[in-house]
Amino acid sequence: MVKIPENVKKVALEAIKKKTFALGTADKKGHPNAVPVACFQYPAVMDDDKFVIIHNYFDKTIKNLQENPFASLTFWDPETREGYQVKGPVEIKSSGDFYERITSEIRAKRPDLPLKSVIILRIEEIYNIKPGLEAGKRIG
Ligand SMILES: Cc1cc2nc3c(=O)[nH]c(=O)nc-3n(C[C@H](O)[C@H](O)[C@H](O)COP(=O)(O)O)c2cc1C
User: Fold this and answer.
1) Does the Cβ of 114 fall within 6 Å of ligand 1?
2) Does the CB atom of residue 39 touch ligand 1 within 6 A?
3) How far is CA 47 from CA 4, 7, 121, 131, 135, in A?
4) How confident is the model over 85-139, as pLDDT tens digits?
């Protein structure tokens, strides 16, 4: 696993505020799908080597993750255009300690959300997406 560098965390925290996250998945035949997601800023949502995304309304996304448990999460700060793409395997948890820890905090603030499961993306690769000569380069 790759530890998230501080500069990448900083952009992720801006993206949490500005709601600029896109989650890419693929089915087992390789057909792609990308959706906007909202990463909540709770202590466990972004750890040293993982992001947690909440499954409320996913349709093709969750089917894809069930049959092909890998994802790409892209986020950026629209003001600086600094951004990163993180990729890795995912785990889906719909019950248990981790699910309860994450969802109990969110449920307290957003009782309207279905909170069907939590998706844990463990980071194996990090790429720079800022437009320029370094765009697309792997940084972690
Ligand atoms: C700004 C924005 C944020 C969203 N965040 C989430 C989210 O965090 N979790 C979720 O389950 N759906 C979220 N959605 C809904 C999904 O993007 C999408 O509508 C849903 O996954 C159905 O598309 P799919 O069939 O490609 O999965 C969000 C939609 C928007 C417009």
Assistant:
1) no
2) no
3) 8, 14, 10, 26, 25
4) 999 999 999 999 999 988 998 899 889 999 999 999 999 999 999 999 999 999 9
